[in-house]
Amino acid sequence: MSAQLNQVTTQIGTDPDMQETKEWLDALEAVLENEGPERAHYLMERMVDLARRRGAQIPFSSTTAYVNTIPTKQEAHCPGNLEYEERLRSWMRWNAMAMVVKANRADGDLGGHLSSFASLANMLGIGFNHFWHAPTADHGGDLLYIQGHSSPGVYARAFLEGRLTEEQMLNFRKEVDGKGLSSYPHPKLMPDFWQFPTVSMGLGPHMAIYQARFLKYLHARGIAKTDNRKIWAFCGDGEMDEPESLGAIGLAARDMLDNLVIVVNCNLQRLDGPVRGNTKIIQELEGEFRGAGWNVVKVIWGPGWDALLAQDKEGILQRVMMETVDGEYQNYKAKDGAYVRKHFFGKHPKLLEMVANMTDDDIWRLTRGGHDPHKIYAAFKIAQEHKGQPTVLLVKTIKGYGMGKSGEARNTAHQTKKLDDEAIREMRDRFSLPIPDDKLADIPFFKPADDAPEMVYLHERRKALGGYLPQRRQKSEETLPVPGLDAFKNVLEATPEGREISTTQAFVRVISTLLKDPNLGQRVVPILVDESRTFGMEGLFRQIGIYNPKGQLYEPVDKDQVMYYREDKAGQILQEGINEAGGMSSWIAAATSYSTNDRIMIPFYTFYSMFGFQRIGDQVWASADMRARGFLMGGTAGRTTLNGEGLQHEDGHSHIFAATIPTCMPYDPTFSHEVAVIIQDGLRRMIANQEDVFYYITIMNENYAQPGIKPGQEEGILKGMYKLQEGPADAKLRVQLIGCGTILRESIFAAELLANDWGVAADVWSAPSLTLVARDGQDAERWNMVNPSKEQRVPYVTSLMQDTDGPIVATTDYMRAFAEQIRAFMPKGRTYKVLGTDGFGRSDSRAKLREFFEVNRYYVTVAALKSLADEGKIDVSVVEQAIAKYGIDANKPNPVTQ
């Protein structure tokens, strides 16, 4: 401790009174020895406070010296058999290498990563052997967010455990035939193995924080006992540059998530080069996390450094450690002991004296803390036991540890996947693998007999912790009854004459009905991002409360109102503030709770559709990978429904994004009865049937009369399209008008114009899901292609349209590509015209916006007439008359370009 204090005095300049300084330091040393660090910390804080109040300018620092946080004498000793663990770890290193190198010798394009696991093998070994619980009757199980690029090492461990076969190992990254292993942690592809996807970079730490919060939420609400469970998230130091990685650390501290441990593997390198060549990533991250309120534990130096630091009475070694930048540290481990002696210890004569009796090999063996099992065990134990704060472990390692000249500490390490024979031989020798020279060229996997003492130890350790990890529950053991459609009667019926509501209001009624359901009410998780009042959902504040682990420590300013803002320790709403990524991470935690907690939850995340998918697209794909089940509600959807807001508030493309995700069921309902049918069927599929799908449902804030459901419409609503109304049967001319969302109503009005002004009958089709219609068509098309001699399937939309007459006009509030999805499945020879809202948004009234984007009733009418003219059924002059009648400016610029 005195060495650290000496370092501080060295950093702030020449000491004008060394004797006085020594007296102060000796006094502090006495307090540390006799009363402990807590008392010393208290006294120092009081002195700093007094100095600041008297006007002293004392700069704030959230970092500590560049040494291990845990003093050597306070390190908990690892109780395991370290000889066995070291051998097991060496075998895993070898098998991970063999798996990747074999795959790339057979097919050089498969890729794979060796260096990440090589750098954190010690950490994973300590965790699996001593800390991480599998689910049992008494323990819900710990949740692991494994650093994505380290998957080969996890497979190598599972191979030794007998959970993976050699055939699977030989099929690393070869998944098409169903025998392979996924490149990264992918629950979609390995549903009983991986718990969470952690690639793309940054998603792991962000999702882990909200997962930890969700466990606290479940416990506070009495739904599941989670107080003995931990979330462990492993990530790389380069990964911390992703905004998501640090974006939620304030929430973790604010909510006191002491069930969360983030481990940053600080090997100082990213793909291209050093993470912080000119500074120190560990110090930077320490400042970020400590400043946010986390418990920070640094594991920097291995045990060989302890004796040197104990000799460092003047703080010279610590000063040099602090002054040396990461680019230099990387260089040291890419060279040899002689280089380290010259360029590190050579920075000060007394340091050279300190290592004078050490050989170059001795210096080379001065390793980093992340490669010492005792240092790691001590840090993990503190993280496991710490209360009141989340913990981050900043662990310094060597990228590609054990890979020798082929990759250890080199800029190329991240991409290294092909080792030559000499590198393989060096690795065999370094880790003492019992593989003869004549077998090296085959790079055989190594697995000792089941009764080998190391193998017995491996299984005993996992048995003591409840079983093997990672493992994933595919289905919940819970069975919850789903209410029938008639439970939503209040939105299925037509609105009374003179009454108008929006589909957002219909959704709120559905939520209210579910909250009252005796079986499902407690499982509903409303998630909002500071838009509750926008969507008319503020009534839920008082009804079910907003979750806050501290409750409500103040009287809300609107307490005298019926719908006042109420926070509660057992609140049901997850209110994220202006934070779409946070809302999505909460939704993911709830939407996968059936797997992680054996508790089926029903999350409804409601957001501005424009600020939803385009901000959280990566997370939506991650949720699909995790087989999430729940509802995403895109509010104020469509390019023209949100009048007055302007360019970046108007969504014309979220349904294009949603269409790309296979397990997403996207719907754009127009009417309240459609909303009810879709949500009820979603509950049936996701809860009763436990299907791995989720729903994206867009809802609007435009009020209009609701027609109510008619018998037989349910099937068409769910399939994505049904006939809403039929034009006069005796008309000579007929067209088919397709619409969805608010623009369906423009098609309805266009049908009236066509009939009244031009004598043309129009059948109107509601298309709640053009995407599902398109998927059905694509499926039929594919089946027909590969089964040419069998009876050919007819796509659903083709069957709807083939017995109708006239051109088909589809109009939506989204880009034309949305409705273009079904063009290929229109009956042969039929005209298919698409109107949409391509281009930038505008601020104006709904009527003006629909005129601007050319999707209003007049443009639908003109499009229908032009299609009839193109088919020779009317004269083109009729189209010109309509353009003049409706005041359409033929010279108006294309809105796409404006």
Largest sheet: 6 strands, parallel
The strands making up the biggest β-sheet line up spatially as 9-6-10-11-13-12
Overall body shape: elongated
Q: Uncertain runs with pLDDT below 50, 5 residues or more?
A: 1-12
Tell me the strand percentage band. Answer: 5-15%
Distance between the termini: 67 Å
The number of helical elements comes to 36
Instruction: Give the helix proportion (percent range).
Output: 40-55%
- Topology, number of strands: 18
| Gyration radius, in Å | 33 Å
Report the mean per-residue pLDDT as an integer.
93
Alpha-beta content class: alpha/beta
Domain Transketolase N-terminal: 147-300, 368-432
Domain Pyruvate dehydrogenase E1 component middle: 495-707
EC number: 1.2.4.1
InterPro entries: PDC_E1_N, PDH/Transketolase, PDH_E1, PDH_E1_M, THDP-binding, Transketo_C/PFOR_II, Transketolase-like_C_2, Transketolase_N
